[in-house]
Every structure is written in C-alpha cells, then in structure tokens.
Amino acid sequence: MKRFACKLGLFAALIFLIDAGWSHLLDRGRPADYAAFVDSKREFDRLAQLDILFLGDSQTADGFVPAVFRERLGASAFNFGVYQLSPFEGYYLLRDLVERLEQPPALVVLGTDAQMFRYRVADGKYAPLFITSPFNLIPLFFESSNLGALTEAGRKKYLFPGLLRWAVTGQVPGETRRQIQLVENGYLQNPKHFSDASQFDCDKDRGFFSETLVAQQTEYFHKTLAYLAERNIPCVIANLPMHPQFLACLQAKPAYQEFQRELEKMAGTHRVPVFNRDHRLLLADLRDEDFLDGDHLCHAGARKFSAAFADYLEQTGFHFQSNQVVAVQPVSGTPLTERK
Q: Model pTM greater than 0.85?
C-alpha cells in the first residue's frame, strides 16, 4: 500500500511538472500587449493596502487610471479589469481577490459594459489565469462545464498557434492592439487611439455576444452585489464612456434598453449608486483621439474619465484614511446617488 501511494504521488508530481512545462512553453506564444496585461495583475499581491479595487471587462481595464486617484484623493487603487470578463467570471474573481487581501478594499467599483448580460456562460479566456484559490476556480469550471481548464496549460490552449509561429519563425506572434508605455497597478498606459471610423460601429463584435439576455449573467451580478453587501464593502457601479457615434448606434438597439432596465433594477434592490447612469458624462468633452475604439478609452480619455470619477467620489462623501471609508452616505438613511 505504501509503495502504491509513493507511485501515485510520483505520477501526480510528473503530471504537475508536465503541465507546468507546457504552460511555460505556451507563454512563448503571447503577443507583447497580452503579456503585459497578464503580468500587470501580479502586482496585486504585493500591495500593503488597497483603497479602491476596479473590476470589470476590457472597458474597465482601459478606463480607470490608478495614478489619478492617488493624485486627487491620496487613495491606493488597483485596476483589475480583465478582457472579456463576464459577471459570471467576475463573481469568482472578486471573491478570490477579496480573500487574498489582509483587509477588504475600502471601495469596490464595478465597471459595466452595455453588453455584459449577453456574454455566453464560460470560464473565460483570461479570468482563470488570475484566480488562485481552488475553492473559487473549481466551481467556475464546473458551472461552465469546462473541466479541461483545470490544468494550467489547458487554460492557455488558445496560445498554441502563437507558439507554433514562434517555433517556426522565432518571432513574437500576434498583432498588438495596444501600445504599452507604462504599467501601474494593473493599468496599461496605452496612447494608441482609433485608426478608422469602422471601429466606432456598435456591431463590430457581432457574433461574439448572445442575441438574447443570458439569465445566468444577471444572476451572478446580483450575487456579486450581495457578496459585497454581506461583507460591508462599499460599492459603486460605473458606466464607462462610449464614443458618441458608437453610443447612438447602441442606444437604438433593444439590447441597450434591456441592459439599462436590468442595471436599474439591481442597483435599486441592492441600494448601490450608478455613476454615469445614462452614458452621457463627458460626451461633448471626449475627442476621437481619446478612444481606442467605439467603447474603449486610450490613456488620454481614461485620465479625463478617472478625474471625473475621482471628483464624484470626493463630492459624494468618500474619504480614504488608513484603508477606511470615513463617510459613505452624506445624507443619513438614504442611499448614495450620483450628482447630476
């Protein structure tokens, strides 16, 4: 029996080493901006304290500049926006991040995407790379029916074509969408802006999202808000800016009205404020050069939006001292609301 246990342990160790080796090798297939994005999140575990945690998909990743909140509020901030992050994935990622901190963040900001309730349910292309606890990772895989992602290499299988190209040509593969100048607390400073007007087309992602609302995504956004409430962690929902042409195109679709109804319902149920409620903040002030494309900001636009959001936090009673929110509700007994 002892000999069998030893053989089983050696076999498991061999599988682990092979998996780790393939995972390391697959990293050779990473484009430069993808590598910077993944590596930037490692800084999270090095923070002594955290005042503001930003969580959402790529719009959040591109939209909040931590340096602005340090400059204006003296607050430590980390941008944990993850490309293609759905509310389903975000729930497990948020749990993991909060559990990794010695004390919870003073504020969690949930960035939105008007299409976020139409993400198809999956473990996610990138989210599993950042979840460390098996108590959060395994349920994510089981509920998305992707047990192949239990292995580290399995979570990076989409890098295989890039690895082949690197092996054949010796070149770093893939087209870089963002030009990274600086990495700070999870945020990638990208000065690159749009190259042609087709990027302002709200149908540019046709086929990626479900044609109808996905009930499981709304359920998990509810669960996220409930999780924060249970732990007494203040929360603000923030709608990121969109280019006027993109916004007008999107607002003409039933999907946008559906998103607004669901968000208003959840914000009311959980008494959570919504910033930039109608997506019209800075609509006249942001220029074409402030956008990477129709629904993503580049660095110039992100600084403008971050400054406006920092002003909102200050004006509505958020003060950061020793990782604590001193005054969250300026009017006793009423939920915090956005100032018009």
A: no
